[in-house]
């Protein structure tokens, strides 16, 4: 199964267009959005091309392919614009015996994990910093941010393809981090 992951769009229409292009080109069945879709948040400057209503309209064009979780900047008002659910604080995807635990990262995070087993993957956003690593048998993955990257990283997204999770730059699709999650 091929999955594209994106986080922290924060209402940026150019970032939304870019991730939807990557999703379309990838041939992936699912686009997983791990929070902070429409609003930029009070601590952040307005991202490039800030247009939350247009972002909602564009995401709605692929609503049937989206699995999403609520970020700390997402609200019930945002849900009124979206044709797919975003109010769950977490979701899970099962791949055989392996679980992908999806959350934004403000409630559950690497310092406050839900109950996970060795071989599971904890997938979050929130920090805007890409991560692909394994600690104590659990995979930690963060696709970074498509609109407001931090830590000197480029805007990025994630891809699961043939058991490999990779963080890729949004601009030119360069792999900047990856980890094999196949048991």
UniProtKB/TrEMBL annotation:
Keyword Metal-binding attributed: yes
Molecular function as annotated in GO: hydrolase activity; metal ion binding
Pfam families for the chain: Metallophos_2 (PF12850)
Domain of life of the native organism: Bacteria
Occurrences of domain Calcineurin-like phosphoesterase (ranges): 1-161
Keywords recorded for this protein, A-Z: Metal-binding
Cofactor(s) of this protein: a divalent metal cation
Family statement: Belongs to the metallophosphoesterase superfamily. YfcE family.
Name of this chain's protein: Phosphoesterase
